[in-house]
Design brief:
This protein has about 100 residues and is α+β, with helices and mostly antiparallel strands. It is about 30% helix and about 30% strand. It has two helices and five strands. The protein has a five-stranded mixed sheet with strand order 1-5-4-2-3, covered by helices on one side. β4 and β5 form a beta hairpin. It is globular, with a radius of gyration of 13 Å.
């Protein structure tokens, strides 16, 4: 896994109004991307973040990237995790919890 923090601009089609953040999963394997998104959504709901953090899955040509985009009033940088294949949720849970803690 590779972790990078970026200061790239968020695409204009992403509406982050009233959100703490967005988690974007770009996956070559759409079924695995959907699985990871479901696991993320369940974890967010169980930790009361589901109304504040949105998830989305987009196709990509190779591998998998999980990007944590800060929301409307957040100043933290975007964090991108790169994988050769869609990871199991436990592989990103610690970084997700850290990112959410930084946003509080």
């Amino acid at each position: 896994m590779t972790t990078t923090m970026t200061h790239t601009q968020i695409l204009p089609d992403v509406d982050l109004t009233n959100l703490v953040g967005l988690i974007r999963i770009e996956a070559e394997n759409s079924a695995d991307g959907d699985r990871l998104s479901e696991e993320l959504s369940a974890w967010l709901a169980g930790n009361r973040w589901s109304g504040l953090v949105k998830t989305e899955v987009l196709p990509t040509s190779h591998g998998c990237e999980v990007t944590f985009l800060p929301g409307e009033h957040q100043s933290n940088p975007t964090v991108k995790l790169a994988f050769h294949a869609v990871p199991a949720f436990p592989e990103i849970r610690h970084r997700l919890a850290h990112w959410l803690y930084e946003l509080m």
